[in-house]
Amino acid sequence: MKILVCISCVPDTTTKINFTADQKAFETQGVQYIINPNDEFGLTRAIRLQQSHGAHVTVVTVGDVSCEPILRKCLAIGADAALRIDTQPQDGYFVSKQLEALCQKQSFDLILTGRESIDYNGGMVGGMLATLLNLPFVTHCVGLEINGDEAIMQREIDGGKEHTKANLPVVLGAQKGLVEEKDLIIPNMRGIMQARQKPLTVEAPVALDPRSQIEHYEKPEARGPVTLFDLSDVDGLLNALQNQAKVL
To answer: CB atoms < 10 A from the CB of 223, how many?
Structure first.
Protein backbone atom coordinates (compact mmCIF):
# COMPACT_ATOMS: atom_id res chain seq x y z
CA MET A 1 0.00 0.00 0.00
CA LYS A 2 1.29 3.44 -0.95
CA ILE A 3 0.26 6.42 1.17
CA LEU A 4 0.72 10.09 0.33
CA VAL A 5 0.58 12.59 3.20
CA CYS A 6 0.20 16.23 2.17
CA ILE A 7 2.02 18.59 4.52
CA SER A 8 1.65 22.34 5.06
CA CYS A 9 4.42 24.33 6.74
CA VAL A 10 2.68 26.81 9.04
CA PRO A 11 3.82 29.35 11.64
CA ASP A 12 4.11 28.04 15.17
CA THR A 13 1.01 28.96 17.16
CA THR A 14 3.19 30.90 19.63
CA THR A 15 4.66 33.08 16.86
CA LYS A 16 3.63 36.72 16.74
CA ILE A 17 2.34 37.35 13.22
CA ASN A 18 3.16 40.57 11.39
CA PHE A 19 2.71 41.63 7.79
CA THR A 20 4.94 43.23 5.19
CA ALA A 21 4.79 47.00 4.69
CA ASP A 22 2.28 46.66 1.84
CA GLN A 23 0.09 44.36 3.99
CA LYS A 24 0.03 41.75 1.23
CA ALA A 25 2.06 38.94 2.82
CA PHE A 26 3.25 37.47 6.10
CA GLU A 27 6.51 38.83 7.43
CA THR A 28 8.58 35.64 7.54
CA GLN A 29 11.65 37.05 9.29
CA GLY A 30 12.08 35.30 12.62
CA VAL A 31 9.01 33.09 12.19
CA GLN A 32 9.31 29.50 13.45
CA TYR A 33 7.52 26.97 11.22
CA ILE A 34 5.96 23.65 12.21
CA ILE A 35 4.04 20.80 10.60
CA ASN A 36 0.41 21.82 10.30
CA PRO A 37 -1.22 20.05 13.30
CA ASN A 38 -4.03 18.42 11.28
CA ASP A 39 -1.43 17.12 8.82
CA GLU A 40 0.60 15.70 11.69
CA PHE A 41 -2.39 13.66 12.86
CA GLY A 42 -2.63 12.26 9.33
CA LEU A 43 1.09 11.54 9.19
CA THR A 44 1.02 9.70 12.50
CA ARG A 45 -1.88 7.52 11.33
CA ALA A 46 0.02 6.79 8.11
CA ILE A 47 3.08 5.70 10.11
CA ARG A 48 0.89 3.36 12.17
CA LEU A 49 -0.41 1.84 8.92
CA GLN A 50 3.18 1.53 7.77
CA GLN A 51 3.93 -0.47 10.90
CA SER A 52 0.82 -2.66 10.71
CA HIS A 53 0.37 -3.07 6.94
CA GLY A 54 3.86 -2.52 5.54
CA ALA A 55 2.72 0.66 3.80
CA HIS A 56 5.15 2.98 2.03
CA VAL A 57 4.65 6.56 3.24
CA THR A 58 5.56 9.59 1.13
CA VAL A 59 5.17 13.16 2.37
CA VAL A 60 4.77 16.10 0.01
CA THR A 61 4.61 19.85 0.39
CA VAL A 62 4.20 22.74 -2.01
CA GLY A 63 6.78 25.34 -1.03
CA ASP A 64 10.30 26.70 -1.33
CA VAL A 65 13.53 25.41 0.17
CA SER A 66 12.62 26.82 3.61
CA CYS A 67 10.14 23.92 3.94
CA GLU A 68 12.84 21.25 3.76
CA PRO A 69 13.57 21.13 7.53
CA ILE A 70 9.88 20.30 8.06
CA LEU A 71 10.09 17.51 5.48
CA ARG A 72 13.22 16.20 7.19
CA LYS A 73 11.28 16.11 10.44
CA CYS A 74 8.56 14.07 8.71
CA LEU A 75 11.24 11.64 7.55
CA ALA A 76 12.59 11.46 11.10
CA ILE A 77 9.08 10.69 12.35
CA GLY A 78 9.02 7.69 10.02
CA ALA A 79 8.04 8.64 6.47
CA ASP A 80 9.92 6.70 3.79
CA ALA A 81 10.36 9.50 1.25
CA ALA A 82 9.69 13.22 0.84
CA LEU A 83 8.79 15.40 -2.13
CA ARG A 84 8.87 19.17 -2.41
CA ILE A 85 7.07 20.85 -5.29
CA ASP A 86 9.25 23.90 -5.85
CA THR A 87 6.81 26.80 -5.88
CA GLN A 88 5.05 29.06 -3.43
CA PRO A 89 1.48 27.97 -2.64
CA GLN A 90 -0.83 30.58 -4.15
CA ASP A 91 -4.35 29.42 -3.32
CA GLY A 92 -6.23 26.19 -2.67
CA TYR A 93 -6.84 25.45 -6.34
CA PHE A 94 -3.20 26.11 -7.24
CA VAL A 95 -1.97 23.70 -4.56
CA SER A 96 -4.55 21.07 -5.52
CA LYS A 97 -3.45 21.17 -9.17
CA GLN A 98 0.19 20.73 -8.17
CA LEU A 99 -0.74 17.70 -6.08
CA GLU A 100 -2.98 16.33 -8.83
CA ALA A 101 -0.05 16.38 -11.27
CA LEU A 102 2.04 14.40 -8.78
CA CYS A 103 -0.74 11.85 -8.23
CA GLN A 104 -1.14 11.40 -11.97
CA LYS A 105 2.54 10.44 -12.24
CA GLN A 106 2.57 8.23 -9.14
CA SER A 107 -0.36 6.13 -7.96
CA PHE A 108 -1.32 6.16 -4.28
CA ASP A 109 -3.84 3.99 -2.45
CA LEU A 110 -4.49 6.52 0.30
CA ILE A 111 -4.04 10.29 0.27
CA LEU A 112 -4.13 12.15 3.59
CA THR A 113 -4.50 15.90 3.85
CA GLY A 114 -5.26 17.95 6.93
CA ARG A 115 -8.85 19.07 7.41
CA GLU A 116 -7.48 22.60 7.15
CA SER A 117 -4.26 24.48 7.81
CA ILE A 118 -4.02 26.72 10.85
CA ASP A 119 -2.61 29.69 8.93
CA TYR A 120 -5.35 30.35 6.35
CA ASN A 121 -8.02 27.88 7.56
CA GLY A 122 -9.10 27.37 3.96
CA GLY A 123 -9.95 23.68 4.15
CA MET A 124 -10.11 23.46 0.35
CA VAL A 125 -7.23 21.29 -0.82
CA GLY A 126 -8.51 17.86 0.22
CA GLY A 127 -11.90 18.24 -1.44
CA MET A 128 -10.48 19.87 -4.57
CA LEU A 129 -7.80 17.21 -4.95
CA ALA A 130 -10.35 14.41 -4.59
CA THR A 131 -12.56 16.08 -7.20
CA LEU A 132 -9.68 16.51 -9.65
CA LEU A 133 -8.71 12.85 -9.20
CA ASN A 134 -12.35 11.66 -9.17
CA LEU A 135 -11.85 9.89 -5.84
CA PRO A 136 -14.03 9.53 -2.72
CA PHE A 137 -13.37 12.17 -0.06
CA VAL A 138 -14.04 12.05 3.67
CA THR A 139 -13.11 15.05 5.81
CA HIS A 140 -13.21 15.65 9.58
CA CYS A 141 -11.85 12.10 9.76
CA VAL A 142 -11.39 10.77 13.31
CA GLY A 143 -11.11 7.06 12.59
CA LEU A 144 -9.46 4.97 9.88
CA GLU A 145 -8.93 1.25 9.41
CA ILE A 146 -7.83 -0.58 6.28
CA ASN A 147 -9.38 -3.96 5.44
CA GLY A 148 -7.99 -5.33 2.21
CA ASP A 149 -8.79 -2.82 -0.51
CA GLU A 150 -11.38 -1.02 1.61
CA ALA A 151 -11.06 1.98 3.92
CA ILE A 152 -13.37 2.04 6.94
CA MET A 153 -13.68 5.56 8.31
CA GLN A 154 -15.32 7.63 11.00
CA ARG A 155 -15.93 11.32 10.57
CA GLU A 156 -16.97 13.85 13.17
CA ILE A 157 -20.43 15.33 12.70
CA ASP A 158 -22.55 17.60 14.86
CA GLY A 159 -23.43 15.57 17.93
CA GLY A 160 -21.76 12.32 16.96
CA LYS A 161 -19.80 10.31 14.41
CA GLU A 162 -20.63 9.09 10.93
CA HIS A 163 -19.31 5.66 9.91
CA THR A 164 -18.54 5.15 6.24
CA LYS A 165 -16.45 2.97 3.97
CA ALA A 166 -15.05 3.25 0.47
CA ASN A 167 -12.84 1.27 -1.86
CA LEU A 168 -9.27 2.45 -2.15
CA PRO A 169 -7.93 4.82 -3.39
CA VAL A 170 -9.53 7.51 -1.24
CA VAL A 171 -8.69 11.03 0.00
CA LEU A 172 -9.10 11.86 3.70
CA GLY A 173 -9.10 15.13 5.63
CA ALA A 174 -7.40 14.36 8.95
CA GLN A 175 -7.92 16.11 12.25
CA LYS A 176 -7.45 15.64 15.99
CA GLY A 177 -9.05 12.35 16.96
CA LEU A 178 -7.64 10.36 14.06
CA VAL A 179 -4.88 9.82 16.61
CA GLU A 180 -4.66 11.33 20.06
CA GLU A 181 -2.19 14.10 20.81
CA LYS A 182 -0.39 11.86 23.28
CA ASP A 183 0.26 9.39 20.45
CA LEU A 184 1.99 11.87 18.13
CA ILE A 185 5.48 10.63 17.27
CA ILE A 186 8.44 12.66 18.53
CA PRO A 187 11.56 12.07 16.43
CA ASN A 188 14.37 10.34 18.29
CA MET A 189 18.08 10.47 17.50
CA ARG A 190 17.92 7.27 15.46
CA GLY A 191 15.07 8.65 13.36
CA ILE A 192 16.91 11.94 12.83
CA MET A 193 20.04 10.12 11.65
CA GLN A 194 18.04 7.83 9.35
CA ALA A 195 16.22 10.84 7.87
CA ARG A 196 19.52 12.08 6.44
CA GLN A 197 19.72 8.97 4.26
CA LYS A 198 16.14 9.06 3.01
CA PRO A 199 15.29 10.63 -0.35
CA LEU A 200 14.02 14.21 -0.52
CA THR A 201 13.11 14.91 -4.13
CA VAL A 202 12.40 18.34 -5.60
CA GLU A 203 9.76 18.41 -8.35
CA ALA A 204 9.20 21.21 -10.84
CA PRO A 205 5.75 22.82 -10.51
CA VAL A 206 2.97 22.79 -13.06
CA ALA A 207 2.71 26.15 -14.86
CA LEU A 208 -0.56 27.58 -13.60
CA ASP A 209 -2.03 30.93 -12.67
CA PRO A 210 -3.86 31.09 -9.33
CA ARG A 211 -7.59 31.69 -9.46
CA SER A 212 -7.57 34.12 -6.55
CA GLN A 213 -5.09 36.43 -4.89
CA ILE A 214 -4.86 38.23 -1.57
CA GLU A 215 -5.43 41.97 -1.79
CA HIS A 216 -4.23 42.77 1.71
CA TYR A 217 -4.32 41.71 5.34
CA GLU A 218 -5.52 43.69 8.31
CA LYS A 219 -5.35 42.93 11.99
CA PRO A 220 -8.48 43.04 14.14
CA GLU A 221 -9.09 46.25 16.01
CA ALA A 222 -7.67 46.43 19.50
CA ARG A 223 -10.16 45.68 22.23
CA GLY A 224 -11.43 48.62 24.24
CA PRO A 225 -10.61 49.15 27.90
CA VAL A 226 -12.27 47.01 30.55
CA THR A 227 -14.28 48.74 33.26
CA LEU A 228 -14.57 47.02 36.62
CA PHE A 229 -17.48 47.63 38.97
CA ASP A 230 -17.71 46.97 42.67
CA LEU A 231 -20.34 44.41 43.64
CA SER A 232 -22.28 47.14 45.42
CA ASP A 233 -22.23 49.55 42.44
CA VAL A 234 -25.35 48.26 40.72
CA ASP A 235 -26.41 51.73 39.58
CA GLY A 236 -23.03 52.33 37.93
CA LEU A 237 -23.24 49.00 36.10
CA LEU A 238 -26.77 49.68 34.88
CA ASN A 239 -25.78 53.16 33.72
CA ALA A 240 -22.81 51.75 31.74
CA LEU A 241 -24.94 49.04 30.13
CA GLN A 242 -27.62 51.55 29.21
CA ASN A 243 -25.62 54.59 28.11
CA GLN A 244 -22.24 53.21 27.01
CA ALA A 245 -22.82 49.65 25.80
CA LYS A 246 -26.37 50.49 24.63
CA VAL A 247 -27.60 46.99 25.48
CA LEU A 248 -30.45 48.01 27.77
So the answer is: 6
In a domain, 228, yes or no: no
> Does any domain span residue 104?
yes
Q: How many CB atoms lie within 10 A of CB 74?
A: 30
For residue 229, tell me if it sits in a domain: no
Q: Could you tell me the pLDDT band of residue 227, with boundaries at 50, 70 and 90?
A: confident
Q: The whole model's pTM is what?
A: 0.85
Q: Which of 1, 3, 5, 17 is CA-nearest to residue 125? A: 5
Specify the CATH number for the domain of residue 151.
3.40.50.620
Give the residue among 84, 37, 90 at the shortest CA–CA distance from 62: 84
Q: How many angstroms separate the most distant Cα atoms in the chain?
A: 73
Residue ranges making up the domain that contains 94: 2-213
Phi/psi of residue 160, nearest 5 degrees: 175, -155
Query: pLDDT tens for residues 108-127?
Result: 999 999 999 988 888 999 99
**What's the CA gap between 131 and 232, in Å, rounded?**
62
Residue 220 lies in a domain: no
Q: Residue 18 has what pLDDT?
A: 82
